[in-house]
Structure formats: structure tokens, C-alpha cells
């Protein structure tokens, strides 16, 4: 039994210690916004925040997550879907098929929390998620738009 803090709520997950966090989130907690893509931490579809850092949930066992660590999924990023990254994504029609986008949004939100005004090079370095549709230019534009929208609130 693992106790996890997911989106501000402590939940008990009856899973083997080596169960990937992704499957605990999806199958045991029922939050399906975090996607399975590759299973080897390459594509980023499973990106969530762990204590504010973007991590790949498909390769992290639940036993490696302490009860006091805070996990945030796409469902917990914003109560009403109006996080600046989500707003920018909608305004710019960033997703094409959309499968990878919850992971992209989580990676972008973590980047902006760390670097409120990232350069193109910083975005390219931080955004290692894979999008088969190739919407990387719109992702970059969305990150810049979200950064501009939060410029007055980020110190």
C-alpha cells in the first residue's frame, strides 16, 4: 500500500512497489489525463510534476515517491483549466491530435515556474517531449504567450 499526495489529496494505492507511478495514477486513482506513450521515459506523454519538477511517471516506481512529496497531474494543474499554459494552448491551437499535449503542458508549466521568461534555446532544451504531429513551433509560441501573460505576476 502506497500513500500518495496527488493534486492536493492523499490517496492510498494498493499496488506493488515496482508499479510505475503512471499506472498508479491512471488505474488506481482514475486520473486518465496522464498518458502512456512509450513506457521508457522517452516521449513525455506521462509527464507530471513531483514537488514542482516535471518527471516521467512511466519509469518512476510508486515506492520511490514519499508520502510528503506532492504530485500534480494535468487534472490538478488548474481547477478550471485556465492555467496560462492551457489558455495559450487553446488560443494558438497548439495540439493537433492532442495525445501528447497533457505531458507537453505539464513540462511547459514546470519550465515557466523555473524560468518565467525562457529563451527559445531554453525552451528547446527543456521541452524534450515528443509530438508525432510536429507542433513544436506552436508549443514554443504557446510557452512565450503564457510567459507574457504571467510576466506581471512572476516577480
Automatic annotation (TrEMBL):
Per the UniProt record, the lineage of the source organism begins with: Bacteria, Pseudomonadati, Pseudomonadota, Alphaproteobacteria, Acetobacterales
Q: rRNA-binding as a keyword?
A: no
Keywords per UniProt: 2Fe-2S, Iron, Iron-sulfur, Metal-binding, Oxidoreductase
**Source superkingdom:** Bacteria
Q: What InterPro entries does this protein map onto?
A: 2Fe-2S-bd (IPR002888), 2Fe-2S-bd_dom_sf (IPR036884), 2Fe-2S_ferredoxin-like_sf (IPR036010), 2Fe-2S_ferredoxin-type (IPR001041), 2Fe2S_fd_BS (IPR006058), Beta-grasp_dom_sf (IPR012675), Diverse_Oxidoreductases (IPR051452)
| One GO molecular-function entry | 2 iron, 2 sulfur cluster binding
SUPFAM superfamilies, alphabetized:
2Fe-2S ferredoxin-like, CO dehydrogenase ISP C-domain like
Q: Which residues form the signal peptide?
A: none
Please report the stretch or stretches of sequence annotated as the 2Fe-2S ferredoxin-type domain. 1-77
Q: What is this protein called?
A: (2Fe-2S)-binding protein
Keyword Metal-binding belongs to the record: yes
